[in-house]
Give the backbone structure.
Amino acid sequence: MSAAEEKKTKREEFLAEIKKVAEKASKMTPEELKFNYKGILYPSVLCSEATFQAMEKLEARQDDVLIVTYPKCGTNWTIQILHEMLFEMHNKEPTLVQAMLEFGNPEKFEYMNQQPSPRVISSHLTCKNIPKTFFEKKTKMLLILRNPKDTAVSYYHFSNKNPVLPKYESWDLFFKEYYNWKCNLWIVL
């Protein structure tokens, strides 16, 4: 199979998985779409207890780069810029790690452990949920922040349009959860 065919196949598999996740989420209540881990809410169709437990066993490396952001703060933009910078610095394509650290199946961590350095890893985790090994190895962490007011408005609309996230009937209901999450983030930073 050629590289182009392999890329096309992977894209088709990815899109099929996204469609399956969206279909599953469409049958869930807003409360079922939320997953609570150590007091922080995450999307239940993207995160699981098994993934968080497997994540705790991930061995961070000193040359890893962990991008930490709240949703809607420029995560994908930052990932792209960092990949381009590392490509130039190392004259090779850095390893792209699957989506967010906390999203997906627990098996992805075996794949991640086999990837060459430098690895660019991204996450929406708060400090208290980032695996301790990232702190022990003194991994570089890039914290991306955005004006909280802009972030809240953007995330409110994103959540109401995204099939895997709970819909909010009002700004007030959304803001209560957003505020609690933001307070947890700032307390542990």
Remarks:
- The first strand starts at residue 34 and ends at 37.
- Confidence is low (pLDDT under 50) at residues 185-189.
